[in-house]
Design a protein that fits this description.
The protein is of the alpha+beta class. It has helices spanning 6-30, 75-81, 141-156, 162-173, 201-226, 233-252, 255-262, 267-270, 291-300; strands spanning 36-41, 46-54, 59-72, 87-99, 106-117, 123-135, 175-176, 181-182, 186-193. The longest helix has 26 residues, at 201-226.
Length: 306
């Protein structure tokens, strides 16, 4: 199979369709709000299609974005990858959903493909990456188990080690080191998935698209189950304090955010992941024995959910 453009075209076509599928379903779930679409161009090459939902019945703010960017790899990224003058192509779908009800978890997912070329335009490297993870504000063990079970089932169709490996990578990656706690209850995280003895790039495409296709099955049943639970202001305050930790991770540790900023990505799309209402309270600690404290305890040590 000729990879010069077929794989990037094939994956870009996949994420365009996936964006349509996901946004349509989420609009159904919300019942009031619809996604506002923004088509943008990147001066150096490429662009994207940003879709944002705000002030809905269920989703306070969310984005489901696709982009395909290309051009010269910036100096900072050349140093990062340890290459001299190189060109790149990167495309992916990135989503974050911040529900209004504190009993519904925030979710993040991303599926991406990257190619690097020498000056003659020959592919010198190509790989897939991505994952999906859940950030609850109140812990329902059955929700965590459901989300992880869907991840596990999708992984098992491709390799019996994938779920354990990529769950562990997720727990390690989404770790707020400066707080010594996880961002949420994890899921999957994989990167630099490239041709090897066991899997060629086509097999990786099949794996990543399997994970992408499983997303709604993992998340929507949880939303449906929790979105109408009555809540008080104190629940909402806790949600906003925890959202602060989410912001800290995205601005301090997240590689995707940094890559976007360093490659002159579109700032509105990059920071779409930030929630609309957040609190930072000085030295805040939940009450001993409370549901809020229960969550904190779980975030200190990764849990085997399935």
């Amino acid at each position: 199979m000729d990879n010069t453009s077929s794989m990037k075209d094939k994956f870009y076509s996949y994420i365009q369709n996936l964006q349509d599928t996901i946004t349509k379903k989420l609009e159904e779930v919300d019942g009031i709000a619809t996604f506002q679409e923004d088509i943008w161009k990147r001066p150096e090459g490429g662009g994207g299609r940003t879709r944002v939902i705000e002030n809905g019945a269920v989703f306070e703010k969310g984005g489901v974005n696709i982009s395909a960017v290309h051009g010269e790899l910036p100096k900072s990224m050349q140093n990062y990858f340890g290459v001299a003058d190189a060109d790149f192509f990167a495309c992916g779908l990135s989503l974050v959903l911040h529900p209004k009800n504190p009993f519904v978890p925030t979710v993040h997912a991303n599926w991406r493909y990257f190619e690097m070329y020498d000056k003659d335009g020959t592919i010198v490297d190509q790989w897939f990456g991505g994952g999906q993870d859940l950030t609850p504000y109140y812990l329902f063990e059955e929700d965590a188990s459901h989300f992880h079970r869907v991840c596990q089932e999708a992984c098992n169709k491709h390799h019996h080690d994938f779920y354990e490996t990529y769950k562990e990578k997720c727990d390690t990656y989404f770790w707020n080191a400066h707080r010594n706690e996880a961002r949420g209850i994890g899921g999957l995280f994989f990167d630099y998935c490239k041709s090897n003895n066991e899997m060629d790039i086509e097999a990786w495409f099949n794996f990543v698209t399997e994970i992408g296709d499983s997303f709604l099955k993992g998340y929507v049943p949880i939303v449906t189950k929790r979105k109408d639970i009555p809540y008080q202001q104190e629940h909402r305050d806790w949600q906003e304090i925890r959202r602060g930790r989410y912001v800290e991770f995205n601005l301090v540790h997240d590689k995707g955010t940094l890559f976007g900023l360093k490659t002159n990505g579109r700032i509105e799309s990059i920071l779409m992941s930030l929630p609309p209402h957040v609190q930072w309270r000085y030295d805040h600690h939940p009450e001993k024995g409370s549901e809020e404290e229960k969550l904190i305890q779980v975030l200190k040590h990764p849990v085997a959910w399935v």
